[in-house]
Amino acid sequence: MNGVHDMGGMQGLGAIVPEPEGSPFHAAWEARVHALTVASPTRGNIDAGRHQREMIPGPEYLAMSYYQKWFRSLCDLLVAKGFATRQEIASGKGAAAAVKAVPHLTGDAVTETLTRPGTYIRESAAKPAFALGDRVRARNINPNGHTRLPRYARGHSGLVVAIHGTHVFPDSHAHGLGEDPRTLYGVRFTARELWGEAANPRDTVTLDLWEPYLERA
Amino acid sequence: MALRVKALESLLVEKGLVDPAALDAIVDHYEHRVGPRNGARVVARAWSDPDYKGRLMADATGAIAELGYTGRQGEHMVVVENTPELHNLVVCTLCSCYPWPVLGLPPVWYKSSAYRSRAVIDPRGVVAEFGVALRDDIEVRVWDSTAEVRYLVLPERPAGTEDLDEEALAALVTRDGMIGTARL
């Protein structure tokens, strides 16, 4: 989806404000939003969570702080998945007669859950279509749904510099279409290919791109 | 916002969908257990131990796990090394992907529209805003974290640190140096 979240290469979005190392949260509610998102029963699908944030209308997305976006998308997902109604979320009170659920993440399991080594690699019989050093082009696709192929790379060609194995494919997974593992490649584009002759000829940008995003150049 | 978040928390606890003790433990984890000091220990070990550095460059996820740093947003780690001729810069243009086990949660600027938009088109200008001037003849490699691979920059070991032990070396390593908006 060609949303404002896909902002690589835009200019004029303001100044960068460095900050010293310190607490990652700048208000107590930000910490609670982070924790609620991690503990929420909607948490299982990281791609669906990302897509939910991308669906915040562009003008609002740009005006919101990071954790305002997380709060908004958490509420939207809870409603979409039937865990709560808008009215319940606004009032903080559950409708009567609801059966009490059992939390899927309990306090004693948090450390083990957050530090457990995980993987997005899935077994697949598929052979990679491209090899290290192959020249590939990012396809010109404009799907309505979730994708991790940024607009700034589409139509441009680069070199395969890494093959990461077959990874869960977000374009399918975000939409409940299964994990649909596909080969993931590191693809290096020269800055001149992406941005034109004014770019430094030494500079490059490397993206991790799934096989369906690529064609032979 | 604070009241709306409180209302949501009350609702989800009342419904039995979240355990309040889990929320407290999650906040504690991200405030105290993960953060850039973890990454600094990885860098200091790599500077001090050539065998470790070899394992780190070949299999970063495994080498980082040797120091006990594993878990969410660190499932597939890659370490990229700065040299006198090469500078690496990490960004996530599409959202805010960041190696949580070694750097903690990202600073606000890393998640900002300003950084996400410009890091790929003007990395030299972005780094200059952090006070780092990169010579024209240094190669700049930007890494856009578009998948579940997470990147950690291995900065150059500063000159004159031959006598320092790992702990003292780790104290020299900054968060921004491991993202690539600083050089050590």
Structure description:
The complex is a heterodimer of chains A (217) and B (184). In chain A, 29% of the residues lie in helices and 16% in strands. Chain A has eight helices and five strands, in the order ααααααββαβαββ. In chain A, strands 4-3-2-1-5 form a five-stranded antiparallel beta sheet. Chain A folds into two domains: 28-115, Cyclin A, domain 1 (Orthogonal Bundle), CATH 1.10.472; 135-216, Roll (SH3 type barrels). Chain A is globular and about 60 Å long. The mean pLDDT of chain A is 95. In chain A, helix 1 (28-39) packs parallel to helix 4. With 217 residues, chain A is of the alpha+beta class. Chain B is an alpha/beta fold and 184 residues long. Chain B folds into two domains: 1-33, no CATH class; 36-179, Nitrile Hydratase, Chain A (Alpha-Beta Complex). Chain B contains eleven helices and four strands. The longest helix of chain B is centred in the N-terminal third of the chain and has 14 residues, at 20-33. Chain B is globular. The termini of chain B are far apart. Chains A and B meet through helix 1, helix 4, helix 5, helix 6 and strand 2 of A and helix 1, helix 2, helix 7, helix 8 and helix 9 of B. Strand 4 of chain A pairs parallel with strand 3 (139-144) of chain B.
